[in-house]
Amino acid sequence: MDYDADLDALGLLCPLPVLKARKRLRAMAPGAVLRVRADDPAAAIDIPHFCAEAGHEMLHVEEHDAAQHYFLRNGREGRAGV
Question: Which CATH number fits domain 5-72: 3.90.1170.50, 3.30.110.40, 3.40.50.40, 3.30.70.890?
Answer without folding.
Answer: 3.30.110.40
